Amino acid sequence: MTDDKTLRSVTIERSGPGRFTVTNARGGTLSFGTGGDADFTPVELFLAAIGGCTAVDVESATGRHAEATAFTVETTGHKVEDESGNSMRDLKVAFSVAFPEGASGDRARTILPRAVKSSHDRICTVSRTVEAGTPVRTSVNEDD
Which DSSP string corresponds to 70-123? Predict the structure, then answer.
């Protein structure tokens, strides 16, 4: 089921002690680390991916009618360590969005709750994958 149209990938390289750089297929880069400095941690990137995916969907739907005058998404969750291992629990994505006065702003305000629900229920690949509980396979490649 994976062909060139559906495959997505990133490459992660160690850039120093506790620091890494991820590169996407288009050449974009992002640094992250273990939390000893201002770099994002993998858990923070996970939260950003969930909130960012939904934000893109919602902005696309509401932006057809009016450009938001304020648009903030806060994604939160609790990192839990228990007998089954580490995981994130109680994930929440909260939108604070404002639109200009007038008919187009009114239309965007009306669409906002439906756009958030639609993103969560059907569109956002990231949160849909988390909720589906998709397995992650790991491997170690032999050096050539």
Answer: EEEEEEEEEEEEETTEEEEEEEEEEEEEE--SSHHHHHHHHHHHHHHHHIIIII
What is the pTM (predicted TM-score) of this model?
Answer: 0.89
Distance CA 108, CA 83 (A): 46
Contacts for 76 with CB less than 8 Å, ≥ 6 apart: 47, 90, 91, 92, 94
For tokens 């994130």, the residue is 88
Length of the chain in terms of residues written: 144
Distance of CA 105 to the CA centre of its chain: 26
pLDDT tens for residues 112-126? Answer: 999 999 999 999 999
